[in-house]
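new request in #modeling-help
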Amino acid sequence: MKLSRADRSLLAEWSFTIDRSLLIALVSLVVIGVVLSAAASPAVALKKGLPAYYFVERHIFFAALGTVLMIVISFFSPAGVRRLAAGLFLAAVAGMIAVRFSGAEINGAQRWLNIGSYSLQPSEFAKPAFIVIIAWLFGEASSRSDMPALPFGLALWAFFAGLLVAQPDVGQTVLISSTAGLLYLLAGLPAVGAGLLVIVGSGGMWLAYEYFPHVQSRFLKYFGSAPLESSQAGRAIQSFAEGGLFGRGPGEGTIKSILPDAHTDYIFAVIGEEYGAIACVALLGVFAFITIRAMRRAAGEPNAADRLAIQGLALVFALQSLINMGVNIGLLPPKGMTLPFISAGGSSMLALSITAGMLLALSRRRPDPQRLKKPRWIPAIDEVQIAGQTPKS
Amino acid sequence: MAVDRDDVLIRGAAAHMVSGAGVRAPLGRGEAASGAPRRRAEAAVYGVLFSAFMVVVAQLLVLAVGRRTDIALAISEPVAATSFSRPDIVDRNGRLLATDLEAPSIFADPGVVLDRDEVVEKLSTVLPDLNASELLRALSDKSRRFVWVRRGVSPGIAQRVHDLGLPGVSFRYELKRAYPGGKMAGHALGYVDVDNRGVAGIEKYIDDKVGVDPVHSAVLSNRPPVRLSLDIGVQHALEDELDDAMRRYHPEGAAGVVLNIKTGEILASSSLPRVDPTWPAQTLNDKRVDRMMGGTYELGSVFKALTLAMALDEGLVKPDTVLDVTKPLEAGRFTVTDMHPSRRPLTVTEVFTHSSNVGAGMLALQAGPEKFRDFLQKAGLLDPLQTEAGAVASPQVPQRWNRVTTITASFGHGIAVAPLQFAAAAATIFNGGKTVHPTFLRKFDAGTADGKPLISAATSRQMAELMRANVIDKDGTGRKADVPGYRVGGKTGTADIASKGGYTSNAVISSFLGAFPTDDPQYLTFVMLFEPKGIADTKGNRTGGTNAAPVTGELIARVAAQLGVAPQLDVVRQ
């Protein structure tokens, strides 16, 4: 299908304004995820007494649904994205509260809401919505003073973090708090506040360590005062050593039949064992490319709320992948976090598709009066003119 | 800081001058007002993100190409079976005795195997001794993903199994212990189990005291080799001479040791029939017991060297003191006689060279049971002995020391010790009188005996002279052990073997305790033949002087130069 520049239809406009590199990178990540799921999950499924391709089929279903969702959302305008975020956030928060009362407890945490045969994790969906809203509030706070946006933003942050801690989900709390904290900095808000946030954050971490036994045990395991052997984390680290640079070869891995979370939180270790460190670095490269691409788009965005939203969504995407990989390679203490688009899990896949859709929507090229008026780069010669040394013609 | 701000203001002003001729462009809704802090924050965030990505890349590469044993050590529980990487074992000169080799191990994945009958049948063509029914049972459990078929096979076998093209049958490289010397020093080296863990001998000592590293694949140890006191050259000469003795005298078994009398270092130790460290099951065969360490024997007349040393050291007699050995010695219901009773009284020297039981008994009685027992105790013969190759069989000692046991012990009966333990005690007599602890490890400190003094240096010298006299005198029992130039001294032993209810007169242990060079003793040899047969060469005799002595002579002729003992041909008959 060839589209004309003169064509003002929705599709034509979308195809010319969308960041194609970003779109291609995201879609290829989804495809890579399907392929790797086929490699890692049959072993886990068999171990759990499920049909071999149970997780693969689910993964393909959610990947297809997620891709559609991502493309649809990418058509939204910035205002539309914010409206979507507000609605999604309200629904997700309602879900998170409902989880408190009806949710099933898995691994000692209440995170899941059962809808029919699928279980849904509302907090995953709240994540991108929260980022867009807090970006908008911080953006407002940095550009106008007639609205108490900053107190609103901080209150929302505290509320959301509180809900996550109540589940308890310390990993997600750390993820959204780091993202929100970085957004605060990126918004150019007062530095005193940033210092205060660091203090509150450290206090929160300390409280988590004190009051959640699982946080304490994982932390101790990680820092060596508790035994590491036989833990998933220990075996994951080992699989990278087994894989070496080029891996043991597709299907030759053994770790996937040992780790119960080989298809979700520890899929990176499976990749490391079967395909080797070079493939891992290549996958990391795709994540890094998406992050950098989005950040570069953000840099040229004049509207503070939109810029912060792009940066926030890219950050949450980058941090989540970094935390997951960091846990896999033993740099961070274990926490339940998926590798975006690669790990199995319906909620995570759909929520990340929404994140990616919003990222694509916000990063679309839009006509900007400021950009048309102002030169993109202020030449150095201007300074010469200021100094009164007008060059002779 | 202030300069920066000014700069920004000027830049901003310039921009507006260019774009709107001094007219301030209206700020877009939501446009950030503070440019500089924002830029700095962005740079910082990008920097942190970039570093985080780089740290992940670095850690990935470190894990992938880093030393695997480090990681293996950090996580003690393995993905599949763990084996152990072991340091090499080398002789005193660094020549290889044991090392780890990479060897393929065959395993099957029941979840992948399509036709288990076919797998078992075809594997049996390559591995005929495969336990087919056991493997069939293991393969029928589809939930198991890992079943060993055979570990540590040769590359040729692995290739043939590979060529069968059986789905679900794969290989894993593991370490397998290899002994380049074959059966050489097999008893001392011990053996390892299928996981490459030491089970016996020096190999067990390495596990207990030196250290081995758990590994998941064929990762060779980077520990320094374990250097033994053994000398491959001396060990080979000893084993070769004992082989020769087995052919000539047809004994049930033979054993020998070469000991550095000052340091206690064991230069060679062998027991025939030998064991192959790669076939541990052989050690279960009673005939293949390590006769040097694993069994205790009544050693007979060689014990007289100890009795005489005590008597001389206590000052009870001098070498020329005359003893009346013409009459048998009454000992309870027994009567002790000599094999060839002398018709005249003998000097102490002659008691030794004629190997008179009556004379030895008289000397022990002169000292008394207490003193004799204390002497054996101090010589280390009554307590259990431990070496790096394992524990030496505990000595069997008379419970009460009375007249009878004192007389019998004086010529090596009624007391049974492991030959190695006896050799170590005998070393004391020639090294200047200090006790030594026998060791299989190379000692690098100066070669002087530093144990507790047992006898005086003068007595030690006298004993060396007596030993030499026994070899060079025209009626000495050890004449066949002499080697021109190497000043060999020695004592023969021919012990009746104890059996139910008494001693069998037709089965003996013949032995020869040798020391050289007797003008400054450095090395001790102890050669034993178990139940040798009389042959034409020995005129039907089975005494130590007729078989163990010539074996010792041939052994010393071969090893003396290797051990750095210079021949002195002008003092052949000193």
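bot summary: The radius of gyration of chain B is 37 Å.
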